[in-house]
Amino acid sequence: MAFADLRFRNVPCKTISLERIQEFIEDTHTKRICFAYAHQNALRSVEDQNIAGWLNLPFDDPFEAIARSILQMDKVLFPPKSGVTYYRRIDSSEEYEKMARFVEEIRDLVFLRDCLDLSVALSMHESAPNERTVLGNHEYKVKYCADKIDVKDDMDCLIDEMQKWLEWLPYYKLADHICAIPSNKPFMRYVISGLHGFGFSDISEQVHWNNKQGSLKDVETASGKLQMVQSWNLLIDTDLSGKNVILVDDMYQSGVTMQYVAMKMKEAGAKRVFGMALVKSLSNQ
């Protein structure tokens, strides 16, 4: 166990409760970072002999843990001295170039601020209203067009993208289990089945709703969605004591379902739950 803790030493181990999820719902501050779109100017150079640039972001978690591991830094972002943005002063051109390469590598990744220990989406779903990203288009076709057209190539792209990020990101690949959010459209189980070379096991079949009635699409508020998923009675038919779990979904919208399932996994003994969605809805919340 000590070795496992050492491997995840920079990763927070959060407590999730219904109260914390409700606080998340009511929190109106920015909940996602994506360098490709809303935060393309977060890293900027400065023409000054004493400083090379600045990195400014609206929050640090989960960016901080991932950036520390990849950049091999003890600390990447610092809390705001004034205002609301986390920051890093970049003193040398070498450090700036290193940070710029990192930002380019994670350009499309979406960092999500929620109750999970780490939470990301692999891309935005739309780059602008009614303009899907490449990955967003593949997700849409697999989810809604599979009964009309051949979506094999689209499915392969989803698998390849998740494979790539799981290989590249720290911590995720070290998980004990992977699990798809229970859904009436279980194509994420097929995505998981296409992954290879990892040591985690798929427990999707052991996690299911016992009384699913109604659809979240018919509920207008996040609080209403939370009440609905509570009524579905999630069952977990496997021992998660001390385990680290990757929880995957196709679309991250309000984040309520993923956080609720993560909460139930922690109640079942899971040590950490890492969220990974294929795409994030356009909303900044």
Structural class, by secondary structure, is alpha/beta
List the domain count as a whole number: 2
Helix content: 25-40%
- The multimeric state of the shown protein is single chain
Strand content: 15-25%
Shape: globular
Q: Main sheet?
A: 7 strands, mixed
| Helix-strand topology string | HHEEEHEHEEEEHHEHEEHEEHE
Q: Specify the number of helices.
A: 9
**Unreliable spans:** none
Q: First CA to last CA: what distance? A: 36 Å
Number of strands: 14
Report on the structure:
The chain is an alpha/beta fold and 285 residues long. It folds into 2 domains: 2-33 and 108-280, 3-Layer(aba) Sandwich (Rossmann fold); 37-107, no CATH class. The protein has 9 helices and 14 strands. It has helices at 2-7, 18-26, 63-71, 93-105, 134-144, 152-168, 187-193, 222-231, 256-267, and strands at residues 32-34, 43-48, 51-57, 86-90, 110-112, 118-124, 126-128, 131-132, 177-180, 201-202, 207-209, 234-236, 244-252, 272-280. The strands form 4 sheets. It has a 7-stranded mixed beta sheet with strand order 1-5-6-14-13-9-10. A 3-stranded antiparallel beta sheet has the order 2-3-4, covered by helices on one side. Helix 5 packs across helix 6 (152-168). The longest helix is centred in the middle third of the chain and has 17 residues, at 152-168. The chain is globular and about 65 Å long. The two termini are 36 Å apart. The mean pLDDT is 94.
